[in-house]
Specification:
The chain is of the alpha+beta class. The chain has helices at 2-24, 28-31, 173-197, 209-223, 225-229, 238-255, 264-270, 278-294, 297-300, 305-321, and strands at 32-38, 50-60, 64-65, 74-75, 80-93, 96-107, 115-119, 122-127, 132-137, 140-144. It contains 10 helices and 10 strands.
């Protein structure tokens, strides 16, 4: 009896260190709160399809997933390939560390009949810095479908492929008409603007005498050194006289006859676009008459080069805005 009791005591003494180590070692279940797997429909997949799986992993803090244990894109079997994997750290909430593991697989299995296949479990490692535990994302199974039927249900050979679906024609006639109308409107608008502004070949037409006179006024005044030196130089300078004559020729060309001071009311009635400069034009004709026909030196000071250039520009603008 004593011998049996002694053996029992020795046995318990030998098992005591093992029991203590088992009690001291952490278990994965104590650190892993949950692993929830989200997957697409488990049927109707064919060769070449991609399967996107997502696993929500919740761990007790301070345990975290070991990045070195994450799966890398690779071939898992002759028919299955892991094409992409990504881990999203969702932070700590309520004392739990949360992750989302996204896995994308592609299947290359070509079944002759519907067949169930399995995507293997994914082993992972969690650690708190000193200890490591193993956890597992559960496997998932799905049903593969064949691309063709084994036994023909109608006439023709078993291997006959169905024709491609003909593309549905898209009516574009309305769009084409709208595009052509828009392009025509743009071309007409540009042509009208070029005609109105005198761009390109339209700048050489003969019905813009004031545009030509404005250029001549500037050229005449620039050729006179004395006029260029002072904006208040007398109008008896040769350049200023030439500028005045250019403006008077423009009035004559616009009216189709010689225009004198007494003809201005009829001119403005026939050409209402110039009504905005009626006062300046009256001043021009009055000063020109006294200068050319009366040798009035005072009249020369009323038409400095700066005023002539400004008046020529306003006449040109009025001519451009007229009919």
């Amino acid at each position: 009896m004593r011998r049996a009791a002694r053996r029992l005591v020795l046995c318990l003494a030998g098992l005591l260190p093992t029991a203590i180590s088992l009690l001291a070692a952490p278990s994965a279940g104590a650190q892993l709160r949950s692993v929830e797997l989200y997957a697409p429909r488990p049927f109707g997949h064919v060769i070449g399809d991609t399967l996107a799986l997502s696993a929500d992993i919740v761990l007790d803090a301070p345990f975290r997933l070991d990045p070195a244990s994450l799966p890398r894109p690779r071939s898992l079997d002759y028919w299955l390939e892991l094409t992409d994997s990504s881990l999203t750290d969702r932070g700590i909430e309520g004392g739990a560390q949360r992750y989302t593991l996204d896995l994308t697989y592609q299947t290359f299995y070509a079944p002759l009949e519907p067949k169930r296949l399995d995507i293997p479990a994914v082993p992972l490692t969690v650690t708190d810095g000193t200890r490591q535990l193993a956890i597992t994302v559960p496997p998932w199974s799905f049903l593969m479908s064949p691309l063709r039927e084994i036994v023909a249900t109608g006439e023709g050979t078993t291997m006959a492929l169905r024709p491609d679906v003909a593309p549905r024609p898209v009516a574009t006639s309305g769009t084409q008409r709208g595009l052509l109308a828009a392009l025509g409107g743009v071309a007409a608008g540009l042509g009208l603007l070029a005609w109105q502004m005198g761009w390109g070949p339209f700048g050489r037409r003969r019905d813009r005498p004031f545009a030509r006179a404005a250029r001549e006024v500037r050229a005449a005044l620039a050729s006179s050194a004395k006029s260029a030196a002072s904006s208040t130089s007398p109008a008896s300078a040769p350049g200023q006289r030439a500028a005045l004559l250019a403006l008077h020729r423009a009035f004559d060309a616009t009216a189709g006859k010689g225009v004198f001071a007494e003809d201005l009311p009829d001119f403005f009635r026939a050409h209402p676009a110039f009504a905005a400069v009626e006062t300046e034009v009256g001043r021009l004709f009055d000063a020109s008459r006294r200068l050319f026909f009366g040798n009035d030196a005072v009249a020369a000071t009323e038409l400095p080069p700066a005023d002539l250039i400004t008046l020529a520009g306003r006449l040109k603008a009025a001519e451009r805005g007229g009919p």
